[in-house]
Amino acid sequence: MGRVVAAGIVLGVGVHVKIYPFVYGGSVLLVLDQTQQKQPQIQNQKNQKHHIRLHQLCKEITPARLTVTTTALLTFLGLNALMYHHYGWPFLHHTFLHHLTRVDHRHNFSVYASLLYDSAATGTTSAIGIGARIASWAFLPQLLLSVIIIPLALARKSLPGTMLAQTFAFVAFNKVCTSQYFLWYLIFLPLYLPDSSFVRRPRLGVAALGAWVVAQALWLQQGYNLEFLGRSTFVPGLFVASLGFFAVNVWILGVIVQDVGALEAGAGGD
After folding, report:
1. Distance separating alpha carbons of residues 116 and 237, to the nearest angstrom
2. What is the CA radius of gyration of the chain?
3. Contact 119/103 with Cβ under 8 angstroms?
4. Spatial separation of the C-alpha atoms in residues 139 and 142, rounded to whole Å
5. What are phi and psi of 103, to 5 degrees?
6. Residue 264 gets which letter from DSSP?
7. pTM here?
8. How much is the pLDDT for 39?
9. 133 contacts 115 by C-beta, under 8 angstroms
10. Which residues of the chain have a pLDDT value below 70?
11. DSSP code of 112?
């Protein structure tokens, strides 16, 4: 139980320091108590089936999962209450609320970069114009994939592999994607690469690395012309480069998901 409490504390502190680790919460909960026996289904008896499904749902709410959730939540709320007591509203704004209205249009590899440039040109962070409105909803596919779909599909097979896939998806689909964000998923590579398709099939690994570097270099060339030389490279240059980099990331993410999905349940969950 001590390790479970420690996990909750670490998760709470992590989300307090940098909000994005909250995406790992669902995966952590899913890998707890994996060995519990499941009630067999009873066929052709509708009421009994309904009762069994309800019973199975209740069995998912285990003491370990409640402990992690409660500990993480209390740690997160306690630290934020302490910071709010010291710094007041500016703490809430600069730590959390600015993510709703931020317009980071410089050095941004995201496919939403051109839309954010358009929004920034209005001189305000409010959602003016169709481009800004689209960018303001960018979090929906991002969170759907990284917080719900990937954990449900992969968490019970490999927790490190799932966290890599979640982080990769979170960064690739984020409306702000700068070079510093790559560090978020690179830390998981030593846990994933040894048994990955990229190592087992060297040609695939070299191709993926080469495509990732080349796509990034092509974007940087367009970005340099725009931000340093003052040339208008929005269309087609910058936009096409952003699409290309996004496509490469989606391809790599697909390989990671296939690798983790091919594992036996619990193979990398400890």
Report:
1. 16
2. 22
3. yes
4. 5
5. -130, 80
6. P
7. 0.84
8. 44
9. no
10. 34-58, 101-106, 118-136, 266-270
11. T
Do 136 and 213 meet the contact criterion of CB atoms below 8 Å apart? no
1, 67 in Cβ contact below 8 A?
Answer: yes
Q: What is the pLDDT of residue 127?
A: 42
Task: Tell me the two tokens of residue 261.
Answer: 């999905």
d(CA 56, CA 33): 13
Q: Report the SS3 class of residue 208.
A: helix
DSSP letter for each residue of 165-184: HHHHHHHHTSS---GGGHHH
β-bridge partners, 158: 268
Q: Can you list the alpha helix ranges (DSSP code H) found in the chain?
A: 2-17, 25-31, 46-60, 63-87, 89-92, 98-101, 113-120, 129-136, 139-143, 150-154, 159-172, 182-186, 189-192, 197-200, 202-227, 239-261
pLDDT the model gives residue 131: 57
Q: Which of 259, 21, 19 is nearest to 161 (CA)?
A: 259
Q: Are 12 and 72 in contact (CB under 8 A)?
A: yes
- Dihedral (CA of 174, 130, 128, 115) sign: positive
SS3 268: strand
Under 8 Å CB-to-CB from 44, ≥6 apart: which residues? none
CA–CA distance from 116 to each of 138, 232, 249 (Å)? 11, 15, 20
Amino acid at 73: L
